[in-house]
């Protein structure tokens, strides 16, 4: 239960962040904002790593840091860069479309479930069939109104961006179990943020984009949500099964839809609320 509770807390921060992205990137390029957010988060986790290395402050909660190997660091960096593509497609899509269109599909995580069962060899329990059915019915209800009233071009663009984000995030977040074991929670979280920040910096350099002054408060809020969400999620890997984390993470989608409702006045119809109830039911089934 402790692991699932941590996933819920993590999903709260990630869910708010996912919806808040739209406000932050609404009238400005999104890559410089991702880069600035990465500077904050990377610096924070670097300081935490240095403090822990010298004073073992976090060892009672996170355990001792394991010995490093070049092969493990290399594989971890590759997985971090793979995960970074999920952020790219998500922010790009949420900038162009409604939160209620992008978030549900990006949070579907069927790719994470398949990776957990086929790659990690986790057991698919019978109750997961009902939980997965509840998720599919919930998503169908959420998209019912969109299929009827949105233009096909806008809907396709939103679905494609959400699906690509779901693929990169679903596979990588499931496999994060390995680099967390190889590097430890703090080291891996720093490596993840630093790798993604370097990737975005490279994209900015290739595109010839010059960094200009950006209002920092919204970026700092995104960085804070990232820090809290990442730490809670990565610690949860030590206490819960991957399949439990995948299903409990659906709480993130619920938070995003509710935040989108209040921040952007995106209307939630009866079908949206029905979908949210079904998603809550799927979480209850596996908790």
TrEMBL record:
Domain EamA: 2-142, 159-287
UniProt KW Membrane keyword: yes
Superkingdom, taxonomy of origin: Bacteria
Transmembrane segments: 70-90, 102-121, 127-144, 156-176, 182-206, 218-239, 245-263, 270-286
Pfam hit, one: EamA
Keywords: Membrane, Transmembrane, Transmembrane helix
InterPro entries linked: EamA_dom (IPR000620), EmrE-like (IPR037185)
Keyword Ubl conjugation in record: no
Name of protein: DMT family transporter
